[in-house]
């Protein structure tokens, strides 16, 4: 496997392009927005500069890797010669189903089709293609160049050989793959999101404050980040939408999102990306300041 096409050049797409190019793959990075593609290249360059400064990469590796990445606004052209396509576009089911129909039409018959979705059923995505046995989940974690895990999700029809290929490939990227099956939230979000939701319920019911909840989990459970800080990092809108997937998928009340989370999303307090969630984020500052609303 030599050529990889990545669809979506946002947070995850640029990180995935970075790790593949660094490992010597030819990368075709595709997005509907040229502006987003330009931003992705700028971000990848900046992230390589940071690696060079830290001594984890050299100028030579950076220059080589950047040469391996070509950008494209046409999906049909961008996936044409790929051995593997990884879709990392916006988390929206209709959008993803439409993208997969197009990839299926334009990619070669042997090409493996992977998705980086956090919560959408791999089986559902596979069902709109003519090759469900070649469709698999390849769930990278954010930030991709730093995080070791790749959660590999077998759809109902995924072929064993395809899984083995993706496991070997993840190792080649220096990642640690974990294979799971396709049920709502897979493993990462099935366990993480109820924990975050319970932390928000504890705040909502007045059991403890933001700092206390996060401190208990950091110091008591050795988590590097408390659940409320992590929710701000992931994005509260993303947390809410994954909880809806778990709630609908299992039909179990234990996954019902906390009303406080729903209110915060409606009020556009989405965490780091909007500058306020459980904490406030002054531009450029790394200090953790609890939001006025929760003081
Ligand atoms: N952000 C995270 O922490 C994280 C972690 C793991 C998985 N994911 C998953 O990764 C995927 C991408 O998330 P993200 O955070 O990078 O989103 P993002 O909003 O940063 O980027 C999405 C990109 O997709 C592009 N796009 C939209 N429609 C497209 C189309 N038809 N063709 C090509 N490109 C298109 C957008 O222009 C945008 O650049 C989602 O499925 C998300 O659930 C996200």
Explain this structure.
- The protein is of the alpha/beta class.
- About 45% of the residues lie in helices and about 15% in strands.
- The chain contains twelve helices and ten strands.
- Strand 7, helix 7 and strand 8 form a beta-alpha-beta unit.
- The radius of gyration is 20 Å and the shape is globular.
- It binds nicotinamide-adenine-dinucleotide.
- Nicotinamide-adenine-dinucleotide binds near residues 36, 90 and 118.
Keywords:
12 helices; two-stranded antiparallel sheet; 47% helix; globular; alpha/beta; binds nicotinamide-adenine-dinucleotide; eight-stranded mixed beta sheet; 295 residues
Which whole number gives the mean pLDDT? Answer: 96
**What structural class results from the helix and strand content?**
alpha/beta
Report the radius of gyration as a whole number of Å: 20 Å
Total count of helical runs of at least 4 residues: 12
What series of H and E elements makes up the topology?
A: EHEHHEHEHEHEEHEHHHHHEE
- Could you tell me which ligands this complex binds, including any ions or cofactors? nicotinamide-adenine-dinucleotide
Strand elements, count: 10
Report on the biggest sheet. 8 strands, mixed
Beta strand %: 5-15%
C-alpha geometry = globular
How far is the first residue's CA from the last residue's CA? 53 Å
- Strand order across the biggest sheet? 3-2-1-4-5-6-7-8
Helix content: 40-55%
Which residues form runs of ≥5 with pLDDT under 50?
none
């Amino acid at each position: 496997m030599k050529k990889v096409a990545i669809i979506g050049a946002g947070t995850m797409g640029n990180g995935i392009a970075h790790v593949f190019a660094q490992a010597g793959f030819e990368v075709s990075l595709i997005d509907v927005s040229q502006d987003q593609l330009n931003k992705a290249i700028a971000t990848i360059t900046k992230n390589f500069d940071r690696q060079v400064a830290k001594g984890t990469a050299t100028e030579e590796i950076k220059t080589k890797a950047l040469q391996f990445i070509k950008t494209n606004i046409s999906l049909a052209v961008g996936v044409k010669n790929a051995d593997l396509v990884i879709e990392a576009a916006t988390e929206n089911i209709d959008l993803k189903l439409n993208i997969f129909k197009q990839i299926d039409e334009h990619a070669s018959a042997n090409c493996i089709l992977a998705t980086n979705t956090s919560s959408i059923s791999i089986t559902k995505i596979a069902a709109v293609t003519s090759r469900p046995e070649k469709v698999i989940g390849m769930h990278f974690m954010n930030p991709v160049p730093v995080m070791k895990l790749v959660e590999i999700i077998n759809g109902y029809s995924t072929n064993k050989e395809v899984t083995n290929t993706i496991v070997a490939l993840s190792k080649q990227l220096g990642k640690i793959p974990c294979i799971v099956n396709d049920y709502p939230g897979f493993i990462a979000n099935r366990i993480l999101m109820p924990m975050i939701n319970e932390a928000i319920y504890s705040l909502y019911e007045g059991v403890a404050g933001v700092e206390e909840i996060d401190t208990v989990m950091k110091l008591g459970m050795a988590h590097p980040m408390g659940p409320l800080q992590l929710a701000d990092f992931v994005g509260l809108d993303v947390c809410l939408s994954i909880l809806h997937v778990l709630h609908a998928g299992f039909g179990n009340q234990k996954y019902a999102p906390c009303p406080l989370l729903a209110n915060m999303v409606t009020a556009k307090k989405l965490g780091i990306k909007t500058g306020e969630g459980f904490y406030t984020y002054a531009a450029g500052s790394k200090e953790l300041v609890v939001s006025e609303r929760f003081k």
